């Protein structure tokens, strides 16, 4: 069975490719390479193109006899989505519509959708489970929630089997060469500041949390990848027909705590210049979002393996290897 992975040359996508291939799955990648890098996925068949290109998507599915799709490709920066909502609706919603239409026309039976904890918005609960109301507070989160509903409604109409996976805050690296090269996520953002001998930035310290900074559930990217392998196997085996599940550890870590871990792992904790500075809140950031991962454990037998220290250490190894080169 061949799986198409959209966005497979990106940070998360490349980890999914590696895990799926290691698990014996045949994969082909569709990626416009706007943020992806072919060096991450050597030996993988790659079609360069956008999910918005209906003809290319249909041809890729047909030419490779694709039976399952893992849809990772998306725009994902919260602040950018607030400033450019229509861009996010085009890329994330219209792109998914084109892909779903091509997939159902081609008789694809299984679909895994990369969703996000952003669908929950600012939930007023200690731990978020999948029955928590979805009330996104930014356009990015809205596009992911709309995407989930599209997948569910196409499934109801066509019998498409699906798993919607709601990622929490992804960090770490499976191997140094697969490290996150962008600077939109907290960990690489702090790395970049430290590399320039600049203080890490905390966006708001007046939230209703113990230390005033946002609390998130950080999840190792290798765990995210293994969840996709578990979902793909369950869909292929017919053990799962329809599933929406969180990918998280169920443990909250504040931004202040995470920066302290990064400073310690990077060896900069004793430097005065590495003390974080507080800046105004960013638009669209909720105070606390921490996952319940019970549903994915019960449905797929999956649970996270890695802790925060391992995430930061693996990400730092990748960052230093890349910057040294």
Notes on the structure:
This protein has 325 residues and is α/β, with parallel strands linked by helices. The protein has 2 domains: 2-170 and 219-247, Rossmann fold (3-Layer(aba) Sandwich); 171-216 and 250-290 and 305-324, Alpha-Beta Complex (UDP-galactose 4-epimerase, domain 1), CATH 3.90.25.10. 41% of the residues lie in helices and 18% in strands. The protein has 10 helices and 14 strands. The longest helix is centred in the N-terminal third of the chain and has 21 residues, at 85-105. It is globular and about 60 Å long. The relative contact order is 0.15.
Observed structural traits:
isomerase; 2 domains; globular; alpha/beta; UDP-galactose 4-epimerase, domain 1; 41% helix; UDP-glucose 4-epimerase; UDP_G4E; EC 5.1.3.2; UDP-glucose 4-epimerase activity; 10 helices; 325 residues; 3-stranded mixed sheet; Rossmann fold
Care to give the gist of this entry?
This protein is an alpha/beta fold. It has helices at 11-22, 54-63, 78-83, 85-105, 139-158, 186-195, 221-237, 255-266, 294-300, 308-324, and strands spanning 2-6, 26-31, 45-48, 66-71, 110-116, 161-167, 169-171, 201-203, 215-216, 218-220, 242-247, 253-254, 277-279, 288-289.
């Amino acid at each position: 069975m061949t799986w198409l992975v959209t966005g497979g040359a990106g940070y998360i996508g490349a980890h999914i490719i590696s895990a799926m291939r290691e698990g014996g799955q045949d994969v082909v990648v569709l990626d416009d390479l706007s943020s992806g890098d072919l060096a991450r996925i050597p030996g993988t068949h790659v079609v360069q193109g956008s999910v918005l290109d209906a003809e290319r998507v249909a041809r890729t599915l047909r030419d490779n006899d694709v039976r399952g799709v893992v849809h990772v490709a998306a725009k994902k920066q919260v602040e950018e989505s607030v400033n450019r909502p229509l861009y996010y609706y085009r890329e994330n919603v219209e792109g998914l519509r084109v892909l779903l239409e091509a997939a159902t026309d081609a008789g694809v039976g299984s679909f895994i959708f990369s969703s996000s904890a952003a669908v929950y918005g600012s939930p007023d609960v200690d731990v978020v489970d999948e029955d928590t109301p979805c009330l996104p507070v930014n356009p990015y989160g809205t596009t992911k929630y709309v995407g989930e509903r599209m997948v569910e409604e196409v499934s109801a109409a066509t019998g498409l089997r699906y798993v919607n996976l709601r990622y929490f805050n992804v960090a770490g690296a499976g191997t140094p060469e697969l490290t996150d090269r962008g600077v939109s996520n907290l960990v690489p953002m702090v790395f970049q500041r430290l590399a320039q001998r600049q203080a890490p930035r905390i966006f708001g310290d007046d939230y209703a949390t113990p230390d005033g900074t946002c609390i998130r559930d950080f999840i190792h990217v290798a765990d995210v990848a293994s969840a996709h392998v578990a979902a793909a196997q369950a869909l292929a085996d017919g053990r799962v027909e329809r599933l929406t599940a969180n990918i998280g550890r169920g443990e909250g870590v504040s931004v202040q705590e995470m920066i302290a871990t990064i400073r310690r792992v990077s060896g900069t904790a004793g430097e005065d210049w590495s003390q974080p500075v507080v800046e105004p809140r960013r638009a669209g950031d909720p105070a606390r979002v921490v996952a319940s991962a019970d549903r994915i454990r019960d449905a797929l037998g999956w649970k996270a393996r890695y802790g925060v220290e391992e995430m930061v250490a693996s990400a730092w190894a990748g960052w230093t290897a890349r910057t040294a080169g």
